[in-house]
């Protein structure tokens, strides 16, 4: 039987049943942040998990090197102000934990299917295909990925709902976002409304005037929309300041 979509992350159920909540322990259980001269640092943290209906403390150390050995190689990592490192380390630790949590992955897949509306179809664009054929009638077949059929009308929801679920895992109450034309703000507001999180969206005052319909949608979802003088860059800066506290 397929799981219904209620998008309440699995750790909340364990918490209600008397188990530990790993996310809310991250702040107090980060045991060491070892800084090394050079380009890397190690974060060690303990998290707890309820296993077989017993409260068990699991010494689960999350080692995260910065730069991370991903596709950017020696040029990867967190090249951000020092004031953001603590918040980013907490977020990274929870993200890694969520990746390894099958219950979270199952719930995310359910949310993507039942709430977001994935998988979206591929549409064969006959007109465009014919238009770009050469004189011999040869050319590529053009397909459109219909991400506009997602909830809120864009691909933005794919990202917003997953991030909101991670915020819920961490025991956070408010999600902060920046938006340009407003679609990301609408998606974030919708995801937060679904998860009973408050939402604050920073947006250029000029964009708010141009995209008043999206501003209205954000407010209908319960988000607080704050105007910022300047453009999207300034809105993003204000959102980061708010997030970092």
UniProtKB/TrEMBL annotation:
Gene3D superfamilies: 3.40.50.1100. It holds the Pfam family PALP. Its EC number is 4.2.1.20. It is an enzyme of class 4 (lyase). Its cofactor is pyridoxal 5'-phosphate. Keywords: Amino-acid biosynthesis, Aromatic amino acid biosynthesis, Lyase, Pyridoxal phosphate, Tryptophan biosynthesis. The keyword Amino-acid biosynthesis applies. GO terms for molecular function: tryptophan synthase activity. Pathway: Amino-acid biosynthesis; L-tryptophan biosynthesis; L-tryptophan from chorismate: step 5/5. Residues 118-239 form the Tryptophan synthase beta chain-like PALP domain. One of its GO terms (cellular component) is cytoplasm. It comes from the Eukaryota. It catalyses: (1S,2R)-1-C-(indol-3-yl)glycerol 3-phosphate + L-serine = D-glyceraldehyde 3-phosphate + L-tryptophan + H2O. PROSITE patterns: TRP_SYNTHASE_BETA. InterPro entries: Trp_synth_b_CS, Trp_synth_beta/beta-like, TrpB-like_PALP, TrpB-like_PALP_sf. PANTHER family: TRYPTOPHAN SYNTHASE (PTHR48077:SF4), TRYPTOPHAN SYNTHASE-RELATED (PTHR48077). This is tryptophan synthase.
């Amino acid at each position: 039987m397929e799981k219904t979509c209620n998008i309440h992350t699995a750790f909340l159920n364990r918490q209600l049943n008397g188990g530990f909540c790993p996310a809310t322990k991250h702040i107090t259980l980060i045991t060491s942040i070892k800084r090394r001269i050079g380009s890397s640092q190690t974060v060690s943290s303990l998290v707890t998990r309820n296993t077989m209906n017993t409260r068990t403390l699991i010494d689960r150390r999350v080692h995260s090197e910065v730069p991370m050995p991903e596709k950017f190689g020696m040029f990867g990592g967190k090249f951000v102000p020092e004031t953001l490192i603590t918040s980013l380390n907490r977020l990274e630790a929870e993200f890694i934990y969520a990746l390894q949590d099958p219950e979270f992955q199952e719930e995310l897949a359910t949310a993507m299917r039942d709430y977001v509306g994935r998988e979206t179809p591929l549409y064969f664009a006959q007109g465009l295909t014919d238009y770009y054929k050469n004189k011999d009638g040869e050319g590529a077949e053009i397909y459109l990925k219909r991400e506009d059929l997602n909830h809120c009308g864009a691909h933005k929801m794919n990202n917003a709902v997953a991030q909101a679920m991670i915020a819920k895992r961490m025991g956070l109450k408010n999600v902060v976002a920046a938006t340009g034309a407003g679609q990301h703000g609408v998606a974030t507001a919708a995801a937060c409304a679904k998860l009973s999180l408050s939402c604050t969206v920073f947006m250029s005052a000029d964009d708010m005037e141009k995209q008043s319909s999206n501003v209205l949608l954000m407010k209908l979802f319960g988000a607080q929309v704050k105007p910022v003088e300047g453009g999207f860059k300034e809105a993003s800066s204000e959102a980061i300041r708010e997030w970092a506290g």
